[in-house]
Amino acid sequence: MDRLSTKVCIVGGGPAGMMAGLLMARAGLDVTVLEKHADFLRDFRGDTIHPSTLDVMEELGLRRAFLALPHRKVATLTAYVGADKFGIADFRHLPTKNRFIAMMPQWDFLDFLAGVGRRYPGFHLLMETEGTDLIETGGRVTGLRARTPEGDVTIAADLVIAADGRHSRIREQGGFEREEFGAPMDVLWFRLGRRPSDTDATGGRFGRGSILVTLDRGDYWQCAYVVPKGGDAALRAQGLEAFRAAVANLAPFLGDRVGELGDWDAVKLLTVRVDRLKRWHRPGLLCLGDAAHAMSPIGGVGVNLAVQDAVAAANLLSAPLLEGRLTEDDLARVQARRMPPTRMTQRLQRLVQDRVIARVLDGSGAPLSPPLALRLLGRVPWLQRLPARLVGLGFRPEHVAVPHAAAP
Ligand SMILES: Cc1cc2nc3c(=O)[nH]c(=O)nc-3n(C[C@H](O)[C@H](O)[C@H](O)COP(=O)(O)OP(=O)(O)OC[C@H]3O[C@@H](n4cnc5c(N)ncnc54)[C@H](O)[C@@H]3O)c2cc1C
After folding, report:
1. Does residue 397 lie within any of the structural domains?
2. What Cα–Cα distance (Å) separates residue 359 from each residue in 92, 171, 364, 368?
3. What domain of life does the UniProt record list for this protein's source (predicted)?
């Protein structure tokens, strides 16, 4: 198996790649998705399935089967500032049937998409296969080389999609120019047990110089401790006991179990970056998801933007690919459709980063008091529908418009 040929070769079996692969195979295309790992099991990835993605699952007739998988529903988000508690987002009034975030391990989501994809004859998922080098002919990308446990393989394709995440190798090879926006923080992820008696809600806790986000995952709390950019080493130098105390200080109800953090291996660093490509395409090559735009963790929108990119790409590219008339203008249409919501989402994230996160992390100013916006949201619950809409549905929710050509 040293040579393969396919219509679309997708590098990366994350949310963008798997959804694009499934939709294109469903439209009748021959699609090969390459995933370098042997499985999807990686902890602390984006585990939030937002209403916009649930709507896509519904449009595919998959909602019921998908929500039969174990998940936790989050219908509201809360902020805690000292002893005060404020509602900040209420998903229960969204103009959709899916009025909640489904917290589900990303590997379950990806396994589910893989299972559905395999029902279509044109869907091929090659695990343990790493895209390594683009192949170009006459200035056009015409395929790529990949590494497999059995040896190297050459894959010819009408279109290569780089969906290989925020450190995309394929994007680098494509020579794309990236705009970097910076972020004032990094995030440390860990988990602590959840007790049936816990009454606290999913949300953020703001203290002087520190922030802790706690996500209710049923039998555990998924926790994100936000540190100033590059502050991970200094925090670790203070020792685990100091870290445990800082967590308990922000979330006193966790004080009886911070001892579960036995060593630093249990704490994983996410280096936050916010960037996007100026141009997402070249002849024969298109970048989607994190490869085109790494999002800030604010709002937990990364998975969902990746899925929306995939839906837009399948909607706009399936017909030209099926009819053998794909041009770079078609790829440009995908960018033209997805760039505005990406730009607007990042602008909002950067606003929150600069106006809220950076100020809280600075920690040197006046005693921490809830900002006016937070107090307003708390006092006028109706206003909580706006953040819910921005987070849950985003600026331009995509809908599946590609015909269902291949019967499962
Ligand atoms: C710790 C952490 C927490 C996060 N929390 C959230 C959250 O709560 N909510 C949220 O929405 N988002 C979150 N995100 C972001 C979210 O995970 C991403 O935005 C989203 O997964 C992007 O999807 P993607 O398909 O574009 O890329 P990825 O999910 O990065 O998928 C890329 C895939 O490509 C594979 N790959 C890479 N290179 C190659 C190659 N050369 N050949 C073959 N395969 C390759 C990788 O193994 C991976 O499976 C988090 C990210 C991290 C790191």
Report:
1. no
2. 31, 34, 9, 10
3. Bacteria
